[in-house]
Every structure is written in structure tokens, then in C-alpha cells.
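re: that chain from earlier
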Amino acid sequence: MQNTKDHLYDLIKDLKTKQEFEKEIKTKSIEFDNLIDENVVALLIVDELGRNTQTISKISELKSSSESTIVGQIRNIQDTRKFNRKNGTKGKVVNLEIEDDSGFCGLVLWDKDVELVKTKKIKIGTKVKVINGYVKDGFKGLEINIGRWGLLEIEPKDIQLKEKTYDEKKINGKIIEIIPTHAFFKDNGEFGFVTKIKLKAKDEIREITIWDDKVKEIQKFKKGDTIKIINYNIKQISNKTEIHLNGKAVIEKC
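^ sequence. v structure.
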């Protein structure tokens, strides 16, 4: 991280004394159980005061292996997963999707940040600002991670976003094919599962990609069953519209 707290203080020295700045850093560090570097806490203070000079990127501009700041609205939240690290410690991770007016990407929260979802501080429709997030290629496309030097602001006051309402998406149809399940290793070392089905909805054949826990659910159905799917995701990949089902989707027999 290039920004140090001394450099960051120069951005707000007309608003606070150095002593006030240092005191606020100490106070906020305690709020974070001293788990966050003081330079990161200083950046959070500067950002809350509207003096963060870091450029905000559009999601469509994100590039893998870079650090970026974005603002968007949460459009999807998957189930929290627990995992064991190589050093024997336990961790938690949750995958979300964040959207702005240029597109959407994955957002990955780890460990203590997962509690923001559990306590409903972050839910579908919540506006967030990701500061210094690390962008990488995920299994489903680009994703931005809140790492050691990253910060997450909920409902940022310095940014205005066009409000968007997320309605339940529903599709009904008859299963005409269930493709065999494929297993793969995720970045955290756990197994993941993916399968596809073909659904005849009205006069159209729709191919639907199904992930992890939903793979187990689809096994309850067979070719010829008519089902209803609620809360599916739409992805645009190579100018092709795809339907994906993750932990928030509901599959019911009609």
C-alpha cells in the first residue's frame, strides 16, 4: 500500500489537527480489534471526510491482478462457506455480486466481513464502496476481494447511486435434459460442483448452469418434470445471456 498515514493527513490537515487525526486512528483501530493496519484506518477516515483522491473505477474497467476502488449495489448473495486453511486455522467466506451502471462482478468477503452479511448490514440492494480491493480472475469471471489493504464502506455518503430495485426472477419449464455433474477445486481448496440442465420454457429451450448446493437439489428431479425456478442470476458472457443458479435460488416442482 502506497498511502501512509502521514501522507494521508496532508489531505485533511485543514479539517483536523495531527493530534486529532492520530487519536481517531487509535479509536477506530480498537473498533476493528486492532486487526487492521493504521495506514488502512487512516485511509478510511480520509475517505469518510470525502478527501480520498483515489480514482473510482467503473466495474467494466476492472482488470485482473490490480487494486481498484469501486462503488456499486449488491445484487446477489450466496451462502457463507467455512473452510480450513493450510496452517490449521478456520476461515469463512461469502461470495456476492456488485453492480454499477457499467456492469457487475463478484465481490468476495472473508472472515470478519462475513458477519456484515449475517447481521443483514449488507443485503441485496445495499450500496457499498470497495476501497483498494484486489481484482482477480474467479471461477465465474472477475471478482474483487477485500484483502489486508482493502476497505468496505456501507451506504457511502459521498457517492450518489441511481437506486435500483431487485425483484425476484422466475422461470417455469419442463426439464428435457440433465447434464452429468462436474466437480472442481475452488481457490480455497474446497470441492465445488456444477451441472447444467436444459429447460423448455414456453417455446424456447433455456440452458441453465447450476452450482454447489443447488446441484444436490436438482438431483431430486428427473427428465420430464415441470419446475419453477425463483431468484436466478443473469450473466452476460461473450455477448451470450446465461442463467445461473446459486445458493439463493429456489427450485420447486410445479
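The first helix runs from residue 5 to 9.
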